[in-house]
């Protein structure tokens, strides 16, 4: 095997581990959100839940995304951007602080003075809550240089440890305060958000202080940081040819920033429509968010069960592998973007890359596509007949009496499209050069307009389900663009990783058959043999059907199964 192929395999192993740990983190986050919502639904109003989980969380996420996402993508865009230029890259990364300050001040003013305020009689301290959430978002930008360094040098366990502890502290404090002082309302969530920020900053800086002072940094030959001051900006005109920041990364940052504004509109579009246009009440927003989180958790749980079953067959220590996009498959987009960016040269077609390297990249892309399509298809097939049961067990008549079941069914289709879009886009963004990114930004503007317009009209017409349908339109348009780009990328090559989107015909037929059987079971058997309000016959039909799907996948999707086994057979030495 050539040196290029060995390098690609090493990066793939570390990326696989990073994606696995990210998956664990995302699963833990959704489980904690699930448990927290289940508890607080019984102690606070749905209006407060809507304000916290939609409006305040949207403010927090918007500040973070707009302030740091472009810097992250640019500074993690491969060795040709950062190699030998870490001092300049660190200077650039600290620009997130002034950018974040501007975003925080501007958006806080909008949230307090321009958006419709909640009823003061129902929830006080709303302006204070806006300020707290905005300040916490800005404060967390202090760890951005450390986060990028961790990703670049693949400290795969650090992110999971720090963010896992921070999330647990946040939700533990939130539940405790709500149980003890429910009359505090929004202040309970403000204090828990402060705890999350303090823990995150303390642990990241604490780890790197230990890492540098203990001499661990010196053991890594390619690690350029030897003291803590190296992580802070240095403005010395006598070195680096008088430059203060990484010019290549700066140009990419500007391109990604323009793209990021549009991408954020598409990513959180339904929440912006809820917040700005007031198409749903705060109570309805709370229900929408609960179902959104519930659908995400169901997807993650199914993936965990599938991969743990796979690990037992192999008798090895497996971690869960990958998921994509905003809620459900985010780790794959984060982790495999790093892999593709390291392995691909921006702006060059497949025929211009080293053959061994492009073979590995194509195999990874094809198998990832097939894998996430299988997971998304399973969620869709079993989500349709079991949405009502899941909502009834979780929230009772509060969630099942209205549009909840239809909303969750539509969300299951959305998950499948998310799966495809996240995988294809992380490849596309990792291979585009600056001019291509700028061209895509113009297309993103059209996508954003279509999405926001369809969200507004469909929501006024059919309610909150319109958000999901609009998102499906949005995902379909973005997938179409990515597929055309990937096809052009492989023009003149005998490789075609897009074949991974199409599952085996026996698997597809089995999924369709099982879904129909479970839908019949839902109509005919849901009231048979109830134990603790659980329709056992209907559940047993689903369990048997899911088992049959797993068997067919393991027998008919040999290439995907072989790919997963090959990635986990030999543990990576790097921790």
Question: Number of helical segments?
Answer: 21
| Radius of gyration computed on alpha carbons | 24 Å
Low-pLDDT runs = 297-328, 570-575
Tell me how many strands there are: 2
The sequence of SSEs as H and E is HHHHHHHHHHHHHHHHHHHEEHH
Strand-residue fraction? under 5%
End-to-end span in angstroms?
Answer: 24 Å
Largest sheet: 2 strands, antiparallel
Helical coverage, percent range: over 70%
Structural class: mainly alpha
Shape: globular
Placed side by side, the strands forming the largest sheet appear as: 1-2
Q: What is the mean pLDDT?
A: 78
List keywords for this structure.
2 strands; 575 residues; disordered C terminus; 75% helix; mainly alpha; 21 helices
Description:
This protein is mostly helical. It contains 21 helices and 2 strands. The longest helix has 41 residues, at 355-395. It is globular.
Annotate the secondary structure layout.
Blueprint: H1 3-40, H2 46-75, H3 79-82, H4 86-93, H5 96-114, H6 126-140, H7 144-152, H8 156-180, H9 186-213, H10 247-267, H11 269-277, H12 282-314, H13 330-343, H14 355-395, H15 397-400, H16 404-431, H17 434-462, H18 465-489, H19 505-525, E1 530-531, E2 534-535, H20 536-556, H21 558-568
Antiparallel strand pairs: 1-2
Helix pairs in contact: 1-8, 1-12, 1-13, 1-14, 2-5, 2-6, 2-10, 2-12, 5-6, 6-9, 8-9, 10-17, 11-17, 12-14, 12-16, 13-16, 14-16, 14-19, 16-18, 17-18, 19-20
């Amino acid at each position: 095997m050539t040196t290029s192929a060995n390098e690609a395999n090493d990066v793939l192993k570390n990326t696989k581990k990073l994606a696995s740990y990210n998956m664990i983190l995302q699963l833990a986050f959704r489980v904690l959100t699930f448990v927290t919502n289940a508890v607080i639904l019984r102690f606070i109003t749905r209006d407060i839940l809507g304000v916290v989980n939609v409006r305040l969380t949207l403010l927090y996420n918007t500040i973070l995304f707009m302030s740091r996402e472009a810097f992250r993508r640019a500074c993690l865009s491969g060795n040709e951007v950062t190699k030998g230029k870490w001092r300049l890259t660190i200077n650039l990364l600290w620009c997130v602080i002034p950018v974040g300050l501007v975003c925080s001040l501007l958006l806080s003013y909008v949230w307090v003075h321009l958006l419709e305020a909640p009823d003061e009689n129902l929830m006080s301290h709303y302006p204070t809550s806006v300020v707290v959430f905005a300040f916490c978002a800005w404060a967390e930008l202090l760890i951005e240089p450390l986060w990028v360094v961790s990703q670049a040098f693949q400290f795969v366990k650090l992110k999971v440890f720090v963010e896992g502890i921070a999330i647990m502290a946040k939700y533990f404090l939130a539940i405790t305060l709500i149980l003890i002082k429910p009359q505090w309302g929004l202040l309970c969530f403000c204090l828990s958000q402060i705890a999350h920020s303090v823990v995150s900053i303390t642990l990241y800086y604490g780890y790197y202080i230990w890492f540098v002072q203990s001499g661990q940094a010196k053991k890594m030959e390619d690690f350029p940081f030897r003291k803590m001051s190296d992580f802070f900006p240095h403005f010395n005109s006598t070195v680096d040819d008088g430059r203060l920041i990484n010019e290549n990364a700066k140009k990419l940052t500007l391109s990604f920033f323009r793209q990021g504004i549009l991408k954020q509109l598409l990513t959180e579009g339904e929440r912006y429509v809820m917040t700005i246009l007031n198409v749903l009440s705060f109570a309805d927003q709370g229900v929408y968010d609960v179902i959104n989180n519930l659908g995400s958790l169901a997807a993650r749980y199914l993936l965990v069960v599938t991969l743990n079953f796979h690990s037992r067959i192999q008798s090895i220590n497996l971690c869960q592998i990958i998921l994509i996009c905003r809620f459900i498959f985010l780790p794959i987009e984060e982790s495999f973007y790093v892999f593709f960016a390291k392995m691909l040269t921006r702006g060059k077609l497949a025929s211009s890359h080293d053959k061994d390297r492009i073979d590995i990249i194509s195999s990874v892309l094809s198998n990832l596509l097939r894998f996430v399509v299988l997971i998304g298809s399973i969620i869709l097939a079993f989500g349709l007949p079991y949405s009502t049961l899941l909502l009834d067990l979780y929230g009772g008549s509060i969630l099942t009496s209205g549009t909840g079941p239809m909303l969750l069914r539509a969300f299951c289709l959305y998950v499948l499209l998310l799966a495809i879009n996240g995988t294809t886009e992380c490849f596309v963004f990792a291979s585009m050069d600056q001019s291509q990114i700028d061209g895509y930004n113009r297309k993103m503007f059209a996508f954003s307009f279509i999405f926001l317009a369809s969200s507004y009209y469909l929501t006024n017409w059919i309610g909150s389900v319109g958000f999901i349908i609009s998102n499906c339109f949005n995902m379909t348009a973005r997938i179409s663009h990515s597929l055309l780009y990937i096809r052009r990328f492989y023009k003149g090559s005998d490789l075609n990783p897009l074949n991974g989107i199409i599952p085996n015909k026996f698997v597809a037929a089995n999924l369709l058959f099982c879904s129909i059987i479970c839908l019949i079971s839902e109509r005919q058997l849901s009231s048979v043999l109830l134990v603790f309000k659980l329709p056992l016959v209907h559940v047993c039909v689903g369990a048997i059907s899911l088992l049959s799907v797993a068997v067919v996948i393991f027998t008919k999707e040999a290439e995907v199964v072989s790919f997963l086994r090959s990635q986990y057979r030999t543990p990576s030495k790097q921790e």
